[in-house]
Amino acid sequence: MSSDKQKLLRKLQVADFALSEAVLFLDTHPSDEQALAYFHKQREGYDALYREYTEKFGPLRAFDNRSKTRWEWADGPWPWEYEANV
Amino acid sequence: MWQYDKKLAFPVKIKCTNPALAKLIITQLGGPDGEAGAALRYLSQRYSMPNAKVKAVLTDIGTEELAHIEMVSAIVSQLTRNLKVEDLAKGGFDAYYVDHTTGVYPVDATGNPFTAATFQSTGDPIADLHEDLAAEQKARLTYDNILRLADDPDVREPIKFLRARELVHFQRFGEALRITQESLDSKNFYAYNPAFDKRK
C-alpha cells in the first residue's frame, strides 16, 4: 500500500476519532455550545479528508463506489489485514 | 441499522508472530469482559431506557464496541499470521489451533466460548447503567493485565488505545446514570425500576 494512502488514512482516523469523541460528549451534553461548535469544525475537516480519500483510493462505504465500470468496494486489502495498515 | 466503514478505528500492524499472546488477547473478543459482550450488552439494553440521551449513549458506545471487536480480532489474526507448525505448542496455542486453526473465534483466555451469560439486560435502567460502569472498569483492568504481559510495541499501541476508550465510556455512563436518576419521580427514594413500575 502506498505511503500516500497510509498518510491520508491516518489523518482520516484522527478526524474520525475527534468526531466520535465529540458525538459521545454531546450525547450527555447536548446544550454545550462549545462542544457543538467543535463538532462542526471537526466535521468540515473530516468531510474534506473523506472526499479526498474516496476519490483517490476507493470507497470507504459500499454506497461510495464511484466507478461505473468496476466494483471497487470488494478490493483488498481489508482493514484488519497487516497490508492495509502499512 | 448500520453501515460498515472500511477502516480500523486505530491502526493494527503487528510484524512479529506470537501465538501465546494471541491466546491471551482473544479474551477481549470473546471473554467475560470482552468487546463482543460489551457491544451486545449496550445494544440490547437500549430498549428499556426511558431517556433519549441515554439511548443515544448506549447506541453510540455499542456501535464503537463493534469497531473494537474488529480491532481485537485484527490483533489476534495478525499475531498468528505466518504461524509455523513448530510454533503451535508455544504458550499452549495448540489447543485453540486444533479446533480453529488460525481462524478468529470468540473465546476467553482459557478457551471457553463466548456466552451472553456474562452480561445482563435487566429491563431496569438503574441496574443496567450500574452494570455498564462496572463493565468498563473490568474491560480496562483486563487491558491493564494484557499490557503487563505484552512487550511488543506493535501490540501495546492498539491495546493502549482500547484501554483509553474504556475510561471515556466509564465517564459517559456515569453521566447517563446521573441523567436517568435526575428524571426519576422525586418520591422514588430507592430508585426502583423507572421503566416498569408505574407510580402515581
TrEMBL record, chain A:
<dbReference type="InterPro" id="IPR024207">
    <property type="entry name" value="CotJB_dom"/>
</dbReference>
<keyword id="KW-0167">Capsid protein</keyword>
<dbReference type="InterPro" id="IPR016571">
    <property type="entry name" value="Spore_coat_assembly_CotJB"/>
</dbReference>
<dbReference type="Pfam" id="PF12652">
    <property type="entry name" value="CotJB"/>
</dbReference>
<keyword id="KW-0946">Virion</keyword>
<protein>
    <submittedName>
        <fullName>Spore coat protein CotJB</fullName>
    </submittedName>
</protein>
<feature type="domain" description="Protein CotJB">
    <location>
        <begin position="7"/>
        <end position="81"/>
    </location>
</feature>
TrEMBL record, chain B:
<feature type="binding site">
    <location>
        <position position="136"/>
    </location>
    <ligand>
        <name>Mn(2+)</name>
    </ligand>
</feature>
<dbReference type="Pfam" id="PF05067">
    <property type="entry name" value="Mn_catalase"/>
</dbReference>
<feature type="binding site">
    <location>
        <position position="35"/>
    </location>
    <ligand>
        <name>Mn(2+)</name>
    </ligand>
</feature>
<dbReference type="InterPro" id="IPR007760">
    <property type="entry name" value="Mn_catalase"/>
</dbReference>
<feature type="binding site">
    <location>
        <position position="68"/>
    </location>
    <ligand>
        <name>Mn(2+)</name>
    </ligand>
</feature>
<dbReference type="GO" id="GO:0046872">
    <property type="term" value="F:metal ion binding"/>
</dbReference>
<protein>
    <submittedName>
        <fullName>Manganese catalase family protein</fullName>
    </submittedName>
</protein>
<keyword id="KW-0106">Calcium</keyword>
<keyword id="KW-0479">Metal-binding</keyword>
<dbReference type="InterPro" id="IPR012347">
    <property type="entry name" value="Ferritin-like"/>
</dbReference>
<feature type="binding site">
    <location>
        <position position="65"/>
    </location>
    <ligand>
        <name>Mn(2+)</name>
    </ligand>
</feature>
<keyword id="KW-0464">Manganese</keyword>
<comment type="similarity">
    <text>Belongs to the manganese catalase family.</text>
</comment>
<dbReference type="InterPro" id="IPR039377">
    <property type="entry name" value="Mn_catalase_dom"/>
</dbReference>
<feature type="binding site">
    <location>
        <position position="60"/>
    </location>
    <ligand>
        <name>Ca(2+)</name>
    </ligand>
</feature>
<dbReference type="InterPro" id="IPR009078">
    <property type="entry name" value="Ferritin-like_SF"/>
</dbReference>
<feature type="binding site">
    <location>
        <position position="169"/>
    </location>
    <ligand>
        <name>Mn(2+)</name>
    </ligand>
</feature>
